[in-house]
Amino acid sequence: MQMLRVGEAALRAAHMAVNDRTMALVSTLLENGMSINKNTLMLFNRLTLQNPGASMADLIKLTKLQLPVNENTLSQLQHYENMEHKLLEYLNRFYDRQFITRHRVNSSVVNTFERSLREYFTIGKTRDCLPSVAYFADEANLTPGYFGDLVKKETGVTAQELISRHVVDVAKHLLATGSDDIAEIAYDLGFQYPQHFTRLFKRIAGVSPSQFRQASSN
Q1: Within 10 A of 85 (CB to CB), how many other CB atoms are there?
Q2: What is the mean predicted confidence (pLDDT) over 17-45?
Q3: pLDDT tens for each residue of 145-162
Q4: Rounded to whole angstroms, how far apart are CA atoms 100 and 80?
Q5: Do residues 3 and 10 touch, judged by C-beta distance below 8 A?
Q6: Distance of alpha carbon 125 from alpha carbon 119, whole angstroms
Q7: Is residue 83 within 8 Å of 46, Cβ to Cβ?
Q8: Buried b (16+ CB within 10 A) or exposed e, 61-79
């Protein structure tokens, strides 16, 4: 059996759609050396096409229901289910390993993210909404899921939490140095509703925006 080669550019897609890869791999194995009869092969492939979102276990159950197969064939189908589990484990290990082997590159991505986050709140910049993980992932040419995993592996904190903490840091500066009311600050930061800003601020700072401003003025 040939080794499955997962290129770096394709790894994220493989991790997000591993079932599709597994189904394609199983079909290839069936066509190249597995002793399974033609009718089973045709039914299995047809069920795969008809049920693109089904797991390998579900496909095996469908095959068992629709084809009178012998014990040897059922054993082989069970083997494919076990193989899917092993492939998932392999992809997960490969996926996690790259965050270790690419530490220097990943650190650069995180540094760029933190710089972009600071620049997002540059004075005078129009903000219609809060920055999202997807926004910074797009700037890094990465998918939001992969970008979030990378940031969490490098910093120990989720990308969303880093964004929230920075938003609160900016808010603290505005509360301590300015005279704008809290609702205006919330809108200026990109919140649609001031109460959402107050809730986030209190969760991270431990006090409400008004309490923080009062303590800062003393």
Answers
A1: 12
A2: 52
A3: 889 989 998 899 999 999
A4: 31
A5: no
A6: 9
A7: no
A8: ebbeeebebeeebeebbee
